[in-house]
Specification:
This protein is an alpha/beta fold and about 280 residues long. The protein has one domain: Glycosidases (TIM Barrel), CATH 3.20.20.80. It has eight helices and ten strands. The strands form three sheets. Strands 4-5-6-7-8 form a five-stranded parallel β-sheet. Strands 1-2-3 form a three-stranded antiparallel β-sheet, with no helix packed on it. α1 links the parallel β4 and β5. The protein starts with a strand and ends with a helix. InterPro entries: GH.
């Protein structure tokens, strides 16, 4: 692997150097941050009605969808992006299609197997990022799609299966996100995903089974869990539906608990003013 992520205190390093330190005139206070974007549907597919995604005169092809993301990555890198999130179960197709009518899930019902096509697409994304010097936040579970795992034991097995795959591929440019916004209603069918103590347990499983990859888990913007913060290597937060002041207050609360750990926001609305609040307060 050509890109190796490491963490020193609350700062990120790529190949032993603080991020952005290679950019002339970049203020030193930004060195070690990991500016990122949400490309959550980068390996998306739908086994129920894929024809719904044939848009603008084009036939939907999950492989082409992934190739188009990979093709765009150099442009994103050139603009300073060093990290992005891609999800095994994707995310919400906002304002278009009900997530409960989509089957975008690579996990078997017992969590012990994963669909090979999803794994190949994720591998392609991670390797493309590796060639550029980028980090991928690999998100395992998304609320409505988690319904395909039969119980909490299956969720635990799913974490183990995915983490073992990441370990066996020897990826060095990955952060593992156990679940996207674990506290949303759809996760209630799996207490281990919905409850803070369950997420803390899954984080420990992911750390162990991945061979030591950095692990975290996000919550909705207004939700804060000291237990999950303590368990995480990287504290993942969301800023959706927050004013700048409320987002600032959230950052202060999280950083007080996180101590000397990096805090990274990997989802927000299109309110770019929140990004400046994050930058000013040492949050990626």
């Amino acid at each position: 692997m050509g890109t190796v992520l490491s963490i020193e205190g609350d700062r990120f390093l790529i190949n032993g150097k603080l991020t952005y330190s290679e950019i002339e005139h970049c203020p030193e206070k930004y060195h070690g941050l990991l500016m990122n974007a949400r490309f959550i549907q980068g390996i998306f597919n739908d086994s129920l009605e894929p024809e719904r995604f044939c848009r603008f005169g084009r036939h939907f092809d999950p492989e082409e969808n992934t190739r188009e993301l990979i093709k765009a990555l150099p442009q994103w890198y050139a603009q300073g992006l060093r990290c992005f999130t891609a999800g095994f179960q994707g995310g919400e197709p906002c304002y278009t299609i009900n997530s409960m009518t989509i089957d975008n899930n690579p996990f078997s019902a017992d969590g012990r197997r994963m669909d090979g096509a999803y794994l190949r697409r994720m591998k392609d994304v991670i390797l493309a990022a590796d060639q550029l010097g980028m980090i991928v936040i690999v998100s395992l579970f998304y609320g409505p799609q988690s319904r395909f795992l039969k119980d909490d034991r299956a969720v635990m097995e799913g974490v183990k299966t995915a983490a073992n795959w990441l370990r066996d591929e020897h990826f060095t440019n990955v952060i593992l996100e156990v679940a996207n916004e674990h506290d949303i209603e759809a996760y209630k069918i799996h207490p281990i995903l919905y409850n803070d103590s369950g997420i803390a347990e899954l984080i420990e499983i992911a750390k162990r089974e991945s061979g030591g990859l950095p692990v975290g888990c996000s919550s909705t913007g207004a939700y804060f869990s000291p237990e999950i913060t303590r368990a995480s290597d990287v504290v993942l937060i969301h800023g959706n539906n927050m004013s700048r002041q409320i987002f600032y207050n959230q950052i202060c609360q999280v950083k007080a608990e996180a101590g000397n750990k990096p805090v990274l926001c990997n989802e927000d609305s299109q309110a770019l003013s929140n990004m400046q609040v994050a930058l000013d307060n040492g949050v990626s």
